[in-house]
Amino acid sequence: MQSCSTAARVTSDADGGTRRPQGPFELTCTPVYDSPMDAQRQDHKLELLRGVPLFAGLDPKALEAIGKIAEEREVDAGTALTHEGRHEGYFFVIVSGTVRIERGGQTINTMRDGDFLGEIALLDGGPRTATAVAETACRLLVMTYQRFQRLLDTAPEIRTAVMAEVGQRLRLLDADSAH
C-alpha cells in the first residue's frame, strides 16, 4: 500500500505555454507498510477484484495478474478522482471510504467499500461519464487503461475472458431493452 499526496499535473508545450492538467491527479507516493501482513492484504485485494463483474470469468492466475497492475493508494477527502467528459483512463475499487458520483453537477450515486468505478474507461480510454469525488479519506485500488491494455496484449486468455463478460452484459442489456 502507498500513502499519496495529490496535485494537478500541468504540462508546458514547446512555446512555453501551459496546457490543461493531465489525468484526474498526479500522485506522489511513499510506502505505508512492508510487513508479514502483505500476503493477507494481497488476498483482500484479489477478493475485491473478484467482486468486479468485468473480472468474473477469470481464473485465479489471471486474477493475480490483474492484481499485480492494481496499485493501492490513499486519497484525502475532497480529492476529485474523475472529471465528467475528460479522457482519464483510471479504474478504481474502493477498499475503504465513500465516493460521491456526480453527473451534470448533480449527485447520482454514493459508493462505498467494495464498490468500483471506471470500467468503461478501463476498456476504451474514452471520456468519463461522471465526476467522482472522495467524500471521506479513501483507500483505493487503482488501475490505468494503459497498464490494463498492456496486460491484455500479453495475456490473450484474460482478453478473451473480459470480452466474454462484456458480451454477456451487452446481451443482458439488449434483452432488458426489448421488454
Shape label: globular
* CATH superfamily grouping: Jelly Rolls
Strand ordering within the main sheet: 3-10-5-8
Radius of gyration based on Cα positions: 17 Å
Please state roughly what percent of the residues sit in beta strands, choosing from under 5%, 5-15%, 15-25%, 25-35%, 35-45% or over 45%. 25-35%
Helix content: 25-40%
- What's the pLDDT, averaged over the residues? 82
Number of domains: 1
Q: Count the beta strands.
A: 10
Largest sheet: 4 strands, antiparallel
Number of helical segments with 4 or more residues: 5
End-to-end separation in angstroms reads 46 Å
Tell me the structural class. alpha+beta
Name the CATH architecture: Sandwich
Low-confidence stretches: 1-33
- Spell the H/E element sequence: EEHHEEEEEEHEEHH
Can you describe this structure?
The structure is a single chain. The protein has one domain: Jelly Rolls (Sandwich), CATH 2.60.120.10. The chain has five helices and ten strands. A four-stranded antiparallel β-sheet has the order 3-10-5-8. The longest helix is centred in the C-terminal third of the chain and has 22 residues. The N and C termini lie far apart (46 Å). The N terminus is likely disordered.
